[in-house]
Amino acid sequence: MPIGITTDVCATFAGAVVGLFIGKKLPETLKTALNNILGIAAITMGIVLILRQHTLSAVVLAVILGCIAGELIQLEKRVNQGVTSVVGKLMKGTSADESFLIQVSAVVVLFCCGGTGWYGALNEGLTGDGSILVTKAILDFVTAVIFGSLLGKIVPVLCIPQALVYACLFLISGLVQPFITPEMIADFSAAGGIITLCAGLRLTGIKRDLKVLNLLPALILVFFVSAAWTALVG
Questions:
Q1: What is the C-alpha separation between 186 and 209, in angstroms, rounded?
Q2: pLDDT tens string 41-97
Q3: Residue ranges per domain, the chain?
Q4: CA-CA distance, 135 to 48, in Å (whole number)?
Q5: Which residue in 34, 57, 175, 211 has a CA-CA distance of 20 to 30 Å to 205?
């Protein structure tokens, strides 16, 4: 059993449940303030990850291509439709407004699709070292408490796709290990950092029209772009 993945998912679920129960006791002004602080924290995390890049040009190209792919398949629209369906069932038919969907989409990115989480899951599969995700679990617990209080029952449910995503990355890491280089990992982290930064901008309301989920294909494309760029340019 991968220790890092298990720890992170359990911490996220525990935090979401705690937030769910204390949500009604938190004043709205505090919830808003915490949401803004979380957005700023995401921006900070994104900047730190971007600084790990090996070839910034390759990272930017991968994000552009990922954005094009995401827009063409309307990834965010499809995810939002799925979220609306799940929320409607959990909330007995209550529809989700645009603001709610924006927040849930940001949580999906932070918990399920962030560069740090994907890198941590891959790293644990490749090396057996789960320390990255164990450390991330502390932040995710606090984050889940905040979002559990803000968004309610949908947040604990997000632990299911989080666990599935991490488990898939852990399992396939053994297959891709011969092809992964330190340069590719560095550019992968940077691409995840850009997406995390965009999620933070959206959370804080600085750029609410950013379709963050449409950028997710970049996390796959960056491996190929980084490898090709290194082979061609060095």
A1: 28
A2: 778 878 988 898 999 999 999 999 999 999 999 888 887 777 666 666 655 555 556
A3: 3-232
A4: 15
A5: 57
